[in-house]
DNA sequence: AGTAGATGCGACAGAAATGACGCAACTAAT
DNA sequence: ATTAGTTGCGTCATTTCTGTCGCATCTACT
């Protein structure tokens, strides 16, 4: 990826970064945006974009590769294979949320098969599965759970949280979002115990003891 | 929508249906498919598609409108406002899953603002919120839950289940998927009780009583 | 059977995006 | 200061999709 025949000049490297950042911004708002729009957002001429990225496809691929690298780092930094499952789950969620919020477009694209990014995604997936396996062995996840389903649910919850967190900026917000993701993943949104024998209470009136259990 | 100057001839009406069905199929596989591809899949000439739908946009809009109608019917048929919350939740999930599996493309698009479909979506959303409110009052959903988050999670789970159910065809499969969606929504994938005092068990070894509770 | 409507086919025009070039002006590195 | 690399601008060719039209043929309704 970085193995060019010769090192880039400093200004050229800056331009590449600027273009990629602009591409992420523009494409997040409209995934069908043209090279022209991306160039305008980057403050460069359209031909310059084409000089750096031969085709539109190449630009997107580079963008995905860049984001995937950060994604990978975010997961690894949480040490999902060694720290206690619950801690790892929370930390991974926090780190991934930050990346997903900042790289919405690039993270929503599948990596080209055979690419470096594809390998990284596969590696992340394997680490995720391993984490869930450990969580199950530790009694954190129910023993009868289909781990593939658990992973899918986890990914989906993170996606929702990231969507919700797009406008938030304060540091604590990501932590709160992550806490909710983990809590929902493990316990759902239901009350702890089911009130009636079959769980089928009346339609709307206050049937059971309304208090049930205030917090969770 | 159906108020044309004159009724369509029978064959023309068949053609419109055929085109819409083909469009759903083709666009589900590639949302950027051309009118040419859609026409080919429908077995008609490209010009015929343009005769029935002036622009590509109009075609997609009609497709969304058609699917949204079915979506709406699927929700209403489950009587989410009157049946017991848990029953309604399951029935809505089953019905919606069937529509989402068969109308993957159309259901993945937002309705044009101001359109009939947009009103239907809003109505469905209101019914969903009302259902969750009732579920909370009945003690099915924890009282402290953010209902908007609950709805988002619910939508996301249905989406995942629909994605998984794309290849399935046997009747019971949808019921099983729906059961898993509702179960996960309410209870998550975690074990019922947290083993340790803080939930932080050892990294991988069998720490707590592995049996915990065999099934759910 | 007769008529109005529907379709297939070929052709055409227009728009928009992509990608490539050459040249003049500028800038980083030596 | 020299040199090599970089950028902006204008231009051009090509491709692809869209949308329209006319005409011959066929088909549904009465």
From TrEMBL, chains A, B:
Annotated segments matching region Disordered: 192-216
Organism encoding this protein: Streptomyces montanisoli
Composition bias, Gly residues: 205-216
Protein keywords: DNA-binding, Transcription, Transcription regulation
Residue spans binding DNA: 34-53
Domain of life: Bacteria
Entry protein name: TetR/AcrR family transcriptional regulator
UniProt cross-references to InterPro entries, sorted A to Z: Homeodomain-like_sf, HTH-type_TetR-like_transc_reg, HTH_TetR
